[in-house]
Structure prediction request, 347 residues.
Amino acid sequence: MNVQGHEKGTISVRLVEEALLALRRRGEAVDALLAAAGIDARLLASPRARVSSQAYAQLWLQLAERMDDEFFGMDSRRLKSGSFAFMARTAIKEPTIGAALQGMLRFLNLSFDDLSLRLEHSGGMAAIVLHEPGEARLRAFGHFTLWMILHGLCCWLAGRRLPILAVELRCPQPEYIADYRVMFSDNLHFASAHSRLLLNADCLELPVLRGERDLKRFLAGAPANILVRYRDPQSLAARIKAYLRSLKPERWPDLEALSGHFYMAPSTLRRKLALEGQSYQGLKDQVRRDLCLARLQAGEGNFTELAFELGFSDSSSFYKAFRKWTGSTPGQYRELLHPEALSKTLE
Prediction:
């Protein structure tokens, strides 16, 4: 069976748990909320399990509606439902990304009680700085949720991904950060003096390319279109992943051949990917992982065949990689997703 096809993207259940934390602390049940989002609550028992980005987006919407808070209870004042849409409607009226971002920060500063945000310039760098005047400290998930909203909306307004140079957070490093590296950058720093997201200042001069005619479609697709990260189809990483998905994994080129396909030197390709917070090996791993999990979600049971189709030299290598991805074997993961299949086998 061919493993080519659309990459749905996946998100760790640890971020599902993070999103639900405030609701759980209130003593409220979450199973119905998970079911409405299409997430099997049993997956939360496996820390390395993953859900589709679409399912996570549905959970985001369900949770925001349930709490009337698009920041999931992480500030003492709610970021009421409709706030993101309001920011988007206001931002498209600005001439540049910098002006749009300033407007977003002004709105959030009016909305939050515990946090304040500002935009700073230093030489060729720009920083979105988050300040916490009180004693409470925002957890990492809260920081990344803010960066996701602000950065994702700016990328959509610009019609391209704006490369993140670094993310610095005052809070300690959480146990799980792998998805944050994929969403933002490998250049993450915790227990820092400041909480800020760093960009090239030139990004602020980019024109706002979106208008009213684009807004309805964008909001209809939110937050799925910014959750993993804003997917710019013209970014080098996105083009490479699309190219990989067009080939069987055993035909994936090495770096030199890939560079030739994109008409650039290997060193140039590496440098451009680094500016997007990516590497070629990392992109291959992402595509291979998501192709694999999609096949298991669809009920695939022939793991030897799947290993071969994913480009592994043998089953042992496949099992080793799968355990690294999920912390389980393919059979255990499939059983978790499809317990009814095991029941039929035992009958």
Remarks:
- The longest strand covers residues 116-122.
- The beta strands are 10-12, 50-52, 116-122, 125-131, 164-168, 188-189, 195-200.
- The chain has a mean pLDDT of 86.
- Residues 140-158 form the longest helix (19 residues).
